[in-house]
Write a structure and sequence with these properties.
- The protein is α/β, with parallel strands linked by helices and 417 residues long.
- Helices cover 25% and strands 24% of the residues.
- The protein has two domains: 22-274, Alanine racemase (TIM Barrel, Alpha-Beta Barrel), CATH 3.20.20.10; 275-409, Lyase, Ornithine Decarboxylase, Chain A, domain 1, CATH 2.40.37.10.
- It has helices at 4-13, 22-35, 52-60, 70-78, 95-103, 114-127, 161-166, 193-210, 242-253, 270-273; strands spanning 17-21, 41-45, 64-67, 86-88, 108-111, 131-138, 148-149, 159-160, 177-183, 187-188, 219-221, 263-268, 277-289, 292-297, 321-322, 342-346, 355-361, 370-373, 395-400, 403-409.
- Strands 1, 13, 14, 15, 16, 17, 18, 19 and 20 form a nine-stranded mixed sheet that branches. Strands 2, 3, 4, 5, 6, 8, 9, 11 and 12 form a nine-stranded parallel sheet that branches.
- It is globular.
Length: 417
Amino acid sequence: MITPLHEEIATRHGTPAFVYDLDAVRRAHADLVAALPRPSTVYYSVKANPHPQIIALLHALGCEAEVSSTGEIDAALGAGVPPEAVLLTGPAKTPETVAHALSRGVTRFSVDSPDDLARVDDLAGRAGVEARCALRVNADEPVPGAGLSMTGTSSQFGADLSWVLAETPRFTGFGHARVTGLHLYMGTNLTDEKDLLAQFEVGIGIAEKLAVLFPDLAEIDLGGGFGLPYARAGERPRFTGLAAALEALLDDRLPAWRDGAPRVSFESGRYLVGDCGVLLSRVVDVKDSKGTRYVLLDTGVHHLGGMSGLRRIPSISADVLTGDENEDASTDAGKDEAEDERVTVAGPLCTPLDVLARGARLPNTGIGDLVSVPNAGAYGPTAGLLAFLGHPAPAEAVVDGGRLESASRLHVTRNPL
C-alpha cells in the first residue's frame, strides 16, 4: 500500500527508497516472543537489516545481537547493544575478525571446527580474556521444509554430529576458549509450524545427547528459520501452537531449561523486520518490444534480491503495487484479463537479468508513477549489489507512529591503503 507518508518521503528524498516502520517491528517481535517457550532469549540476526534504529529498537525490546563480521560487530555496538549481548557467528572467521571482536569486548563466539576453536583460544589468550564458545553442530539428518537447508547435508557450517561424537576431545581442553553452548541452526524460511517444530526437535535431541559430553553447557541456541514472504504480498505467519509444543519437548529432554540450565535461545532476522519495509520506486519508462510491454523502474536487482539477479541464488519474482490498487499486482487471476495490462517490470541495469517481475498487472501505469514492493524490510541495500554499475544507493527512511523519524543513504567509497 502506498500511503500519503510514502508519497511525502518519495518527494522529499527521492526514489528508490526503502521505508521501515518501527511499529511493524514491534508487532513482529511480540508475535515471535508469543510463539517461543518461556523463558527463552531472542537474537536479532543483524544481517537481515543493520539499520541502527532497527537494531536499537530490537535491543530495547530484549533482543541480543547475532553478527558475523567486523562491520556487523560495529553496527550492533554502535546501536547500543553491549558487548556481552553480542554473539559472533559464521564460518571462516579470520584472525582479524576474531581479534576485532575481542578488542571491542565481544567474547562470545559460535565455532565450526577444532581449528576455529583453537584460533579463538589463541587470540583470547593473547588478549588475556576467556571466550565462551557455542559449538555449531551439523545434524546427521536433513530438516524437511527448509527454504534453504543448512544442516543434514555436506556443509561449511558447523561440525558434523558424528565427528563431534567420534572425536570429542578435539573440541575440549582449551585454556581460553571453552565450549559453553551449542549452536543448532538447521534451516531458513520455514513457514509451516510443523516444519519448525521438526527442526527444533532435531536440535533438542542433539543437545540432549551432547550435554553428557559437554557438562558445562550454559546455552542451547536452537537457531530460527521463521519464514516470511519476501518482496511479495502476504501476511507474516503466526505460530500459535509452537510454544506449548516446544515447552513439552524441552521439559522431556532438557528438564532444567526453565531454570536456565541451560538457557534456551533462538535467532531471527527476516521474521522480525521483513514486513516492516516497503521499497518505493518511480516508473521511468514504459515501452513495447516484440509483443511484451515493459515498465522500467529506477530500482532493480541491485537493490532488491542482490545476487539473485545475477543467478547466483534463486531468482525473485517481486510483487509491484500501484497506489490505485494497493493489492497483489502480479498473481490475482480473478480479474478479467481484458482489463489487465500484463507487463514485465525491469530495472535500470545494463543487463537483461535486471527483471523484478514478469506477467505483472500494472493497469494504466505511466512515467512518473510511484509503485511499491511489499515485505522488503529484510535483505535490502546491504544484501544488494550496491557497487555494480555505480548507481546511487536507495534512500532509507524510518517511520514511527506514522511520522518520519530519519532518512539516510549508504555510500560506497574507495579509501587508500
